[in-house]
Amino acid sequence: MENKNKLIEVKNLKKYFPVGKSSLFGSTNYLKAVDDISFYINQGETLGLVGESGCGKSTTGRSIIRMFDINGGEIYYKGVDISKLKEKKLKPYRRKMQVIFQDPYASLNPTLTVKDLVSEPLDVYHIGNKKERYERVLELIEKVGLTKEHLDRYPHEFSGGQRQRIGIARALSINPEFILCDEPISALDVSIQAQVVNMLEDLQHELGLTYLFIAHDLSMVRHISQRIGVMYLGKLVEIGPSHAIYKNPLHPYTKALLSSVLEPDPKLARENPIRVIEGDVPSPLKPPTGCRFVTRCKYKKKECNNLEPELKEVEKDHFVACHLY
Amino acid sequence: MNSRLRGNLKYQLKQNKLGIIAVIVIAILLIASILAFLAPHDPNKIDIMNSLKSPNKEHIFGTDEMGRDYFARALYGGRVSLTVGFLSMIISTVIGTIVGTISGYFGGRIDSLIMRTIDILMSIPTFFLILILNAYLKPGIQNIIIIIGLFSWMGIARIVRGETLSVKEREYVLYSKVTGEKSRTIMLKHIIPNIFPTVIVASTLNIAGAILTESSLSFLGLGVRQPDSSWGSMLKYAQGYIGDAPYLALFPGILILLTVLSFNILGDIFRVAFEPKANND
């Protein structure tokens, strides 16, 4: 890939959360939510990020949009390292990056009307006068399938899917280039999920958006993403084009994860039973040395216990961190 | 306040008979003290011939040692007490909300500094501080309101800080932050409106406290001066005649009790109505 096409590049990103500072002199333990991961997102594509709860996928996304300071590594936005920028210098980049959250109930201020919610980013950047803002809000709200009558209502008067649409309208209002979709569909019911995902896709084609799509529903991720990254316990274990990940998963964790996707056809389902991974995720406070997946891996070798695998390019653009390859 | 809270409040009021009584008492006292000028007698008209008359048709609360109508004095006194209660509540709520929000929102050193200052202020017996300050200031309603307001915001600030800590992690606040909103706007637009129910509870209880403080001050002779009256100062003058005319102490005493109790009950109802978890008991 040419460097020009990369909208976002993350290098050696680390985010540790301090936990359990029990006494005044006790040493602080750190939860390594994201531990040294690198990847990039091309302009106009959707990168899906999957993994089970607590594996650090949301933290990765939130680090990119600078919701908090990171502990190490760099985040390049169009070649500029934004990971250490102060708030003032960061503002032009904030305008280009938006976020859609998982919980449409928690992500909308219950005391504001839809009109105020959607125009919030416009107010922050002082875009247009009152009338222009109103027209922009109306245009956006119609784009996401709501009507003028909804403008003066409060979030609690809407269903989950409608609220998520309001969240999407809000994210679009300042014409961002990049949208972090932080599990935008996992709180919605299945029929609404498809609507929201299709809307996100249409908007991507129409406006040339770039998404980082975080989810744990693999079939939805496959549907929307061009490339997919798989995370396990703060590490990126595999990343590659979606068709390659689905046709030819390399990492044992990815294989297990994909086999957990439910098959609607009962005949096929009987032929390919779910391969359950044994054991639980180890505590992220004390991750295993060597490969993070070693405690649950069927194929583990000697070096897996001591040596941490690096991401290797096995096929074109398809990287995996595993000693088997 | 959204409609769910309003609904809760109605429900709680319906459930709680005591609450309805409290609201009625507060409403009567408010209306009575606002309309105090309609009282049949001048509260300051001295009529020595009629001094210390027990309650009768003409003077329903009786007359005091100078023959002034006690009912009219109680009404005007209520005006003073309620004014002090409300205005000092507003002062302390405004200060407490601002300080608490800043402390909770920014966290870290600012938070530690503010919280330790509050700890220190709270460990000084406020009442004595007020007494000392009062000695240097001209006694009068204005000064009392300001002093009580300035020394009773710490509790509110603590409560507001706690709420802010929880609200600032909600996703709409995070969203605002990553969109580049200024901290001040985030606090005004997102945090304060969402902690407002809690603020209302705390400030309702503060009214009761302020009325009590004012009464105590007046009782000690540091509040309202003659010929003006307040419930506290009425109690003070009733002291001398407690044997001959016990009703002089009874009326202002009952009025203080009713007001403070009503505000406390009302505060409690607000608390239950605004707290979804406490709803089901």
UniProtKB/TrEMBL annotation, chain A:
SMART domains: AAA. Keywords: ATP-binding, Nucleotide-binding, Transport. GO terms for molecular function: ATP binding; ATP hydrolysis activity. The keyword Translocase does not apply. It comes from Tissierella pigra. This is ATP-binding cassette domain-containing protein. It comes from the Bacteria. It holds the Pfam family oligo_HPY. GO terms for biological process: peptide transport; transmembrane transport. Belongs to the ABC transporter superfamily. Residues 8-258 form the ABC transporter domain. PROSITE patterns: ABC_TRANSPORTER_1, ABC_TRANSPORTER_2. PANTHER family: D,D-DIPEPTIDE TRANSPORT ATP-BINDING PROTEIN DDPF-RELATED, TRANSPORT ATP-BINDING PROTEIN.
TrEMBL record, chain B:
PROSITE patterns: ABC_TM1. It is a multi-pass membrane protein. Residues 78-267 form the ABC transmembrane type-1 domain. It is found in: Cell membrane. GO terms for biological process: transmembrane transport. The chain crosses the membrane at residues 20-39, 84-106, 118-137, 143-160, 191-212, 247-267. It holds the Pfam family BPD_transp_1. Keywords: Cell membrane, Membrane, Transmembrane, Transmembrane helix, Transport. The keyword Zinc-finger does not apply. GO terms for cellular component: plasma membrane. It comes from the Bacteria. The keyword Membrane applies. Belongs to the binding-protein-dependent transport system permease family. This is ABC transporter permease.
